[in-house]
Write a structure and sequence with these properties.
Keywords: Coiled coil, Membrane, Transmembrane, Transmembrane helix. The protein is built from 3 helices and no strands. It has helices at residues 9-31, 36-69, 77-88. The chain is rod-shaped.
Length: 99
């Protein structure tokens, strides 16, 4: 019976397999579908959408205010005059338009 003094081939393959498996799971944890990079990307996209949502909510509130000011229950004559000038291009009889 001859004994080798070097490492066994099976042990070498075992450790090599464990190292490869560890590298695979490390790569998947960092760059996979549920990894750190994807989480950072989703967080940044969520923050951008939250900012856009706040801007849109502010715009909706402004439009609701204008709509309420032009409703039948409450009529703001200054706003009505401004809208007639902007949208219809109307002017009063005592005004002069310079272009």
């Amino acid at each position: 019976m001859i004994r080798r003094s070097g490492p066994q081939l099976g042990a070498l393959f075992y450790f090599l397999g464990m190292i490869m498996l560890g590298l695979y799971f490390t790569f998947a944890a960092v760059q996979g579908d549920y990894g750190l990079f994807k989480r950072i990307e989703v967080k940044a996209e969520g923050d951008a959408l939250a900012v856009e949502l706040a801007a849109l909510q502010e715009e909706v509130a402004r439009m609701e205010n204008l709509t309420a000011r032009l409703s039948d229950n409450f009529l703001d004559l200054d706003l009505l005059d401004q809208q007639a000038r902007d949208v219809l291009g109307m002017i009063r009889a005592d005004e002069i338009v310079i272009r």
